[in-house]
Structures
1.
Amino acid sequence: MFDPPIGGSGETYKARVAAVGRSLPATRLTTAELMASTKHRTKIDLQRYTGVRERRVLDGDGNSHTLAAEAVREALSRAQLEAGEVDVIIGCGVTKSRGLQARTWAIEPPLAMDVAETLGARHARAFDIGNACAGMLTGAMVLNNWIRLGWIRRGVVVSGENLSPAARNAARHVRSLLSREVASLTVGDAGAAIIVERAEEPDAQDILFCGATVAKHSRLCLGFLTERDPGVRMFTRPVALHNAAMTNMPVSYQQLMETLGYPLEELDHVIPHQTSKAAIKTGIKKITEHLARHQLGERLHSHAVVTVDRFGNTASTSHTVAFVDELEAGRIHPGERVVMLALASGLVVGAMVFTADEALVAGYPDRGTADEIPLNGAPAANGVANGHTNGVLDAVGAAAAPAAPVAP
């Protein structure tokens, strides 16, 4: 894998996002239903505090692997590709559930290998990497680099997140808003896939990445299996994690914007990691203020995409789940720039920037229009706009928003 670029000329190729896919369980679990199941009387108004109205959950009908495989099928269909045309599959999920019980986890063989076998991509290299909720963006970065060097032509990044057991476990243990498992109440299940391939057009735009790991914050969010509870339990220090993210994210994005060479206004779609409405709103405000101070743009051209109200925090899949939402709604147009903002325990911050080309958008011929399809979710008490939180400095209530539970 350390061979020079094919041909030995040193010339690099460009990569493009060819297609995306997602898989969502049919079962919806509302926040009201989840909080009604708590063992202790918490008096926590979770929906008002986080903006999460409901999430999708597996209900004995799948696992991390089935979610992942279905998402890849969707992406391949959108790109009109066969599984045999894929050179590499990288599994990037946090959860590892197999079988019908969430307690059944398998570290080996890798999820990517199972997906390759299930879909018939038997000649593809398949392996897993892990980077918490930044996993899929990290996997896309690896594929982008290999494509640029000419080592591969096409690869798939995939994840299947079966996080709902963490929410059900938290409901049995949470006693108050100060509990370290409160953030677990916001999570949901989803599968996602991104196909990255060599761009054939000479004027194709590069996919760019930036990122940093601030390891001193690595113990602020911990997840592990326990003996008495089915599936994972997650323990977070939300206020400390929120403050660490607000401190470190703006600097990383400053470096990105300096590399891009164009102002903030030329980012058409901003997709943050879906933690909570309040956290997203505050984060966008902090980033925008910081970039404006460094003369990298005055304001975001568009609002930040918010889907956490309907799907909860789906960990590594959250960016792709939201991006598919925008494509299906007809809000993405050829030539528009998309930025996915990473925030993950570790602490990992970063971003992936790419241009949605005509072929990618054409994969959604049945898409609606922004006028026909309602924006994501209903207005929340924390002031976040319906569907998209305002990414400009005059966002109402952003400065006073509490540090809502964050679970990277």
Note: The chain has two domains: 15-198, 208-389.
2.
Amino acid sequence: MKLQIVSRLRLATPALTLALAPVVWAQNAPSPFDESALPAATANATLGFDDKAAAQAFDFGRTTIAALQEFALQRHPALQLVDDLTDAERGVYVQAGLAPNPTLRYGGEEIGADGSAGKHGVSVEQEFGGAARRRLAQEASRKASVALNWERQIVATKIRNDVRAAAYRLLIAQKRVEFRQQIASVSQAAEDQARNLIAAGSLSQLNFIQLQNQTREANLATVKAKNAKTAAQKALLAVLGAPNGSIEAILDDPEELGGKPLDENATLDDILERSPEIERLKAQIVQRQAVLNYERAPKREFSVEGGVSYAFGDSTTLASAGVGVPLRINDRNQGNIQRATAEYFAAQRELERTQLKLRAEFAETFAVYKSAREEARTYREEIMPSLENFFEMSQQAFLSGEIDFLEISQARVVYIESSVNYLESLERLAESIVKLEGALLERCLDE
């Protein structure tokens, strides 16, 4: 019976060819992308940061902030993450434009009636009429890619800012080490010379012990400054994406910061006009509008079905055809339209919120910048030159017996405090300038 069914179905070959034409066309249609380019799924696939890349010990040697920024932009995982999301959105775009697949059906009726094999048939159903909505879906996906492009600009700006800020922190940490080493060296020299004063009876044992304690404190402060420098170096290497790297020296000078003063109104206008964060939100509004257009577009899909069947009882070949139109009675897509409308207005509110946030953050940052700039200038040009000269003269006067131990101790405390304040003002100035010149974007390693 099996051979008989197959042989008799051959009589319907011309009709079957027409009925199966959509299936054949779909199989022979060109693929929208090269599947061979996709990564192979393996049981040993490794997720996360590339261990080999992370373990590579980059030696940056004597370098500049600009060179470090360029290195980070070439391989930072935060940028690669956005690139992966952009590739995913390209897949969404491709999928949104694909026509629905045809459906192949087999049916059998009256099998065994009057001892016959019954009636057997094959049909193909294809949906039509959705091309317009598919184009709208692709447009929404394309707008999402535009927003992701701005997201990439945000991440790139954060990376540049974070590298620059971390590099300045390392430079200032290095200056702290140099300053603490200088203080420790002076303290040790004073202690060594004070031994002669004790032998000559010009210095009490109590003052000498206090002088020794100051030397120990200076040495401890030097160790603390070196540890802070090591931490700053590791933080910079982490921001670079090279945690096992090494840096001999950064050639930029943090004391060159604060040349030409920034104009408050011009800087704020520049941030609001060129901020990639604002541009991304504007692109998201356009994308939400495209989604709303897609959801609002009327659904005009209909299906066409055609097939052939063979009745073994009377050896009859039959053809069938049908058209199906969905009745939009209960589901008129009203829920998706409401959601898309709310998301569109929410995107507008988010833009307004972010603009206010930038204004508030700018006001705070610019106030820090103005104070730090004036403070750093005053220390650099007025306070530190006179204090260095005063401290050196005090050291000589103490050793020659012109001033007592209390006076030299007070001079040293003033010099140390002023030097620490100067370096802290430099650090605040560097951080505020980086934020103001970098559209207030920072922390590329945060989520």
Note: The mean pLDDT is 83.
3.
Amino acid sequence: MASHQPPLNPESLGSAAGASSALKMLLALRAWGDVQQLQSVFSPGNANGIEIVTWCQDGARVFSDATALDADIVLLDPTLPAFEPNDVQRLYHNERKPIVTIGAIPQQGDWGAKLYQIGAKGHVDAPLGEAQARALVAIAHRAVQDALRERTSPSYIPQVDTRVAQVIATHGWEKAVVAVWSAKGGVGKSTTSENLAAVLGVLANRRTILIDANMAGGNAHIHFGIADAQIAKNIAALARRFQMNVQTAGYRNHSGNVGVLSAPALLSPAEVQGHLIPIRNNLSVLIGIPKQFMGGDEYFQGDLGRGFMHELLNVASSIADFVVIDLGQDTNAAVHLQALRDANYVFVVINPDAASVRATAEVMDTLFKHLQLDRQKFRLVTNRFHEEHGIARKDIVNALQMPEVGVIPDGGPKVTASLNRGFPLVIDSRGEIARQYVAIASTLYPPVTQIWQSRAKLGGAGNEGLGKKLSELMFGSSRA
């Protein structure tokens, strides 16, 4: 490109082009020819309002270079070796300022769509020439301005330790144990855990175990319509089995280094599997205590209770892709606390009211400071949210200092009706509440988003019979 070409003028964007505060751009490109073309346009002091700060060919360096050099823009070739898709969101939600990613899209493949899925704010086509450079000026200034407006908006939600739902190259995912917990009762923990488990086990068809471990009394057997004859196979029965195994194995207390948590395996996969109730597709449930007083039994207390939960989660995670635990709010309960320790993620459910937020913040402070739980694995789910409740999502996130993975709108009678019907709302609903549960599940298993989109094309509320038949064809028929 000849250097005598006129400058690319972005004045129509209302930007500060040509001013001393030019935007800083990092080139994350493979082709040296593309870099040369851009260097001739965005040389120091150019009138286009953009200057290049560096060029890198190592995808692993993109985030560190962009933040260290105070870049505003990253022009990214997504085929760059060692490129980490999560970095696009990490850059955009960089604490100091947003750093926007613009794609330099290769001619082969569907990289454009994939980059937009993970948060790119625009693209130009490679190889880069004069037309692409002119387009880049307009795209870059507009994208930075939009990002700054979003950052200063009251509705902006900072994303701490973001997990991108779409994983590009491999569509990869990891097995996980997820505890659903709250510092208060009645906020929707059971509804959240049951619907999350249903998305993973029924819709996504991954091997999923829902453990009802609420020591204030379990409700999963009611919400899933499990027959009375099967209620005897509950978590208390399995805990008694564990206690018998401990006694048989000659358990020694913590007088030395040997205790329940360090003893050989005391629950077999067959014993755990024998207490599970199959629900539908790949979802099974371990029923909770049917009577509240049972939460005080000795096999749930102290070392024995902690050992039981530790062993149960070890075995469950060995036979399932996902384990979802519905916990009661009492962190003094041994099984609750052990589940919080052992889980890969803790989804904290709150309602958008000041009392719920304050109570949660106080308990979380204790968990982190005194019990040394890992703050990084805690995620926020705001349930029954409505904008007219007078508390902003941003304020909730800032008060609790954890990333938000889901906002469930106030469902009112729809949610209650689903509980009374005996199966979770996500199984027979295509509405916004169900969609939000799917969005939460996608942070654990990204492909479920595509499954949900395909499912949404089948039938609808106006044709209930057809929708039900098609759902059964895809996801299996409901239990008798």
Note: The two ends are 72 Å apart (CA to CA).
